[in-house]
Amino acid sequence: MKCEHCTRKECSKKTKTEDQEDASVDVMSPARGKEEKGEFHKLADAKIFLSDCLACDSCVTAEEGARVSQQNAKDFFRVLNLNKKCDTSKHKVLAVSVCPQSLPYFAAKFNLSVTDASRRLCGFLKNLGVHFVFDTTIAADFSILESQKEFVRRYQQRSEDERALPMLTSACPGWVRYAERVLGSPITPHLCTAKSPQQIMGLLVKDYFARQQNLSPDKIFHVIVGPCYDKKLEALREDVHAASHTLQGVDCVLTSGELLQIMEQSDLSVKEAAVDTLFGELKEAAVWRPDGASSDGYLAHVFRHAAKELFGEDVENVTCRALRNKDFQEVTLEKDGEVVLRFAAAYGFWNIQNTIRKLRRGESPYHFVEVLACPGGCLRGRGQAQAEDGHVDKALLRQMEGIYAEIPVRPPETSEHVQMLYREWLHGANPHTVQEALHTSFPSPGLAASSLDIKW
């Protein structure tokens, strides 16, 4: 099945019969089983969108399609129902991790504060049969801290390695998939190797938390709730190496809209509950977010860290200025009249295309680019910001942006839990352990000539 925006004259999926085509569409459905479907089910059944699946080079393979078909509410309820059976050998510990960009969506829909919405969401999931509900902010903290260190290292090595800079962020799964499948080896060396928050959360739950609870990782069924469908595809690559075994960090991904629909169709009474932490009986007292207008804020955090580490400059407020449009912004640091740091944020693929063109020609002026597939950032993910007509619900988006801006910011460096995990889980931030646990690689097949013909 081709993406609706695919402009290729030839497509490996074109030879499918109508029945096969229908089957492949069905594979992308987040949930099945009810005759009347809500807006998110209809959207997911309709098409693969450019911002949802950016593998325009080869679309979704049959193997990937089969695995994506498990990323839905049906699989979630399968595990819930198994846990009600008498055969305890098939029981799973159900853990759900919620992305910080999903909380404003629930707050807007429930007409509650973020904290109260988080507690209602947690209470519903616990009543449904979920054992633990986590916040993925701690995983985003790890990802940002490792990105900061990697950027400083790349900046210092830029004269020896021409592909060290610009460093491109790798937390957005749609962008990473496109970079790997379409752009290939000329671009992938520029991707930051720090794992995404979803990947790190998978490892925290299946490795650290499993050991704390004396559980085998395969006895945990881990669900991520996030703003976009791309996270379902990201889960396919998460074969996480921990200790002497390999494990799947995330077993199922539900979008914010899918979970809301489950809540709306349920007749369960909701009793609020505090979000769990990875540290036993301790409960999360407050909701925090990284410093980003609608994302995890890599640009702001890395910029501050680099200014301090490389030039001894303390930057309190990182103020970006819009250039060609509001989704392409930059910020610079000057020292002695010279620009020593030039960072950019490129959201949406029109802006990404221009960024990549300049990079290919060796004309990129930037040291760092925060790249996100969705215009407007993560809050605008198709899993939560879509109206019934398939367009962005602008009123809802504005409401979510206002709510997200009100969540207090916590710099990753100040998290005591993160520092404790570096000491205890990662053996005092042992370089080899940190590299294996918190970093990844981006194999790519090279750049296919036909990839250059894609029109945006």
Please, could you describe this protein's structure?
By secondary structure, the protein is an alpha/beta fold. Helices cover 39% and strands 13% of the residues. It is built from 16 helices and eleven strands. It has helices spanning 18-27, 39-46, 62-68, 73-82, 103-110, 114-128, 137-156, 173-183, 197-212, 230-234, 256-265, 298-311, 349-360, 394-406, 416-424, 431-438, and strands spanning 93-98, 132-135, 167-168, 220-226, 239-242, 245-248, 252-255, 321-325, 328-335, 338-347, 368-372. The strands form three sheets. The protein has a five-stranded mixed sheet, with helices on both faces. A hairpin with a 2-residue loop joins strand 9 (328-335) and strand 10. Helix 5 crosses helix 6 (114-128). It is globular, with a radius of gyration of 21 Å. The two termini are 19 Å apart.
SSE map:
Elements: H1 18-27, H2 39-46, H3 62-68, H4 73-82, E1 93-98, H5 103-110, H6 114-128, E2 132-135, H7 137-156, E3 167-168, H8 173-183, H9 197-212, E4 220-226, H10 230-234, E5 239-242, E6 245-248, E7 252-255, H11 256-265, H12 298-311, E8 321-325, E9 328-335, E10 338-347, H13 349-360, E11 368-372, H14 394-406, H15 416-424, H16 431-438
Parallel strand pairs: 1-2, 1-4, 3-11, 4-7, 10-11
Antiparallel strand pairs: 5-6, 8-9, 9-10
Give a short overview:
By secondary structure, this protein is of the alpha/beta class.
Number of helices: 16
Terminal CA distance reads 19 Å
Given helix and strand content, the structural type is alpha/beta
Report the average pLDDT across residues: 81
Total DSSP E strands: 11
**Proportion of beta-strand residues:** 5-15%
In the sheet with the most strands, the strands line up as 3-11-10-9-8
Radius of gyration: 21 Å
Using the alpha-carbon principal axes, give the shape: globular
Main sheet?
Answer: 5 strands, mixed
Q: How is the quaternary structure best described? A: single chain
| Strand/helix succession | HHHHEHHEHEHHEHEEEHHEEEHEHHH
Q: pLDDT below 50 for ≥5 consecutive residues: which ranges?
A: 1-59, 447-456
Query: What level of helicity do the residues show?
Result: 25-40%
